[in-house]
Amino acid sequence: QRLELVINACKVANADGFINTLPEKYDNSVGERGMLLSGGQKQRVAIARAIVSDPPILLLDEATAALDSASESIVQKALDKAAKNRTTIAIAHRLSTIKNANQIIVMGGGEILEVGDHNSLTANPDGAYSTFVAAQSLAQAKDEEAAQVNSDVVEKNDDLHEDVIPLNRVKSGRSVTSQILEKNNEEKVEKEHHYSMFEVIRRLVKMNRPGWSAYTSGSIAALVTGSAYPIMGILLGRILQHIAARSPTDPDYHSYIRHQIDRDSLWFFIMAIGAALGILIQSWAMHYAGELLTYALRHESFKKLLRSDVEYFDKKENSTGVLTSNLADNAQKVQGLAGISASTIIQSCSTLIVGVAIGIGYNWKLGLVGTACIPLTLSAGITRLKIVVTKDQQNKKSYEDSAEMACEAAGAIRTVASLTREGQALEEYQTLLRTPLRNSIRTSLWSSAIYGLSQGMAFLVIALIFWYGSQLIMNLEIELEDFYVCLMAVVFSSIQAGNVDVSNARGGAARILKLLDTKTEIEIETTSQDGIHLDTVEGHITFEDVHFRYPTRSDVPVLRSLDLEIKPGSYVALVGPSGCGKSTTIQLIERFYDPAYGSVKLDGHELRDLNLNNLRSHMALVSQEPTLYAGTVKYNILMGAVKPH
């Protein structure tokens, strides 16, 4: 039944003939991005995908602009067949493809200049449509020997004749609508949120509920393992005390030392086995929990990207290269924080608590002095962490441009190779790398100086403990064993605790949380039942006083007071120069964007009030550059079968 659905759609799209000539027919692979098919074949597969679910509304955004003359003729016949018995809105540069349209709407400067069919519009020789027809006829007469007309040439012709199009009205000054649009754009500017370490950990723990049992086991093991370092101080202090307790000239010195060292070495061996088991359990449990969190983060991040509206992807910082790099890299960095680094943090807390308890228990004076110095040793590690995080954020921002350029060059490698621009691409990539390199060199001096001072703080604390401890030893207030126990348990434990490296993990986690917390104007939720659901659609579309500006170009008005009515079952064509708002109308109908002012309605319902997925299930879009996925012909066509047939 599914194959029959696909075959029927392909027959309407004039694709059944060439598909049956393929080695595996409908099970034949189209290759990456459809590279195994020609341009005309890809476009016909895209048309079949668009109509396989029999949508009542068909949107054609310059569907034949990138094709040669032979392919255009075949595809145009397919489009004419697909447009029957449904509301069709077509955008075209080649006016020959829309002669049979029921209604042709000529646009310019975001407004409607003329409305009518082909015959009525050409009857007015001074009209905008007649100007377009004359311009294209002149261009074709000068280039009769050409096999194809490139869409870029058409756009250039449009631009040349844009100035001679008679405009019906001219506006000056700042209108009230203009002020409203600017105010709306100002309201969208939000202050960037800073994610503290505590907030990052709290959010990650909340997201990883399935891994809580593993975290519990790993945390208990980390607490046990963390106590090993202070306990080692006790054993080491005892060994040093035994060595200093007897003179080498004593007759039983060697036997005494051997007996004591053997006993303490046995305790070291037992502690090593316990620590090994603890680290094994700790590492396995935390790694398992970290993998669960990594899966959840990648899943939620990709789901958020799919939910985001088109406006989000229009921003420069959200280019394809940056987003794919973040999706692959950030979750992996967070795994370090949620896995091994999380256990290290717990282990360090255990080390500090047990170390302070042992130090104060052996000698409260030296123990309190060492405890008072803990903020200094911890601040050394925290300062190092902040420097590394800052550098990581700066480098991440600096390298985003080079990552975007590399992704663009790799994605269009055939074009780069055909133009023999490999050297230029490499040179541009190197140029983009030089900026972060210069910034890194410029900031490395002061950051290295601060880093050196922070790390020197630990040695100053050790020097203080040695000085004060020697005073206590000279005053017979402390034994040598107690001194070394306090030194190892308190000071060295705090230094060890301050060396937890979560710099990369925190940066990656902050970027993921920023993505998940991003609010978009149009939130796409595939399972949402919000909004009105339309079981049937007639295809009556109206634009009422619509104003629109693209968020990334808020100073350029695209649509101005657009009033438009498209009747059910009609074939309507939109024509005009580049930038006049033709494609924008398609994007507003699909609700890729919302108008800044005015309303767009379908069958009397404002699009904002309709369930987004239900709305789009009644529409099909065929664009100039069809996107096919790596898979079979049948797989790509069934991607359009959104209805449960």
TrEMBL record:
GO BP terms: oligopeptide export from mitochondrion
Pfam families to which the protein is assigned, alphabetical: ABC_membrane (PF00664), ABC_tran (PF00005)
UniProt subcellular location: Membrane
Keyword annotations: Hydrolase, Membrane, Transmembrane, Transmembrane helix
Family annotation (Gene3D superfamilies): ABC transporter type 1, transmembrane domain, P-loop containing nucleotide triphosphate hydrolases
Domain (ABC transmembrane type-1): residue spans on this chain: 218-492
Keyword Hydrolase part of the UniProt annotation: yes
Record carries keyword Hydrolase: yes
Entry GO terms, CC: mitochondrial inner membrane
GO molecular function: ABC-type oligopeptide transporter activity; ATP binding; ATP hydrolysis activity
Transmembrane annotation, as ranges: 212-236, 266-285, 445-468
Main localization of the protein described in the UniProt heading: membrane
Protein name (database record): P-loop containing nucleoside triphosphate hydrolase protein
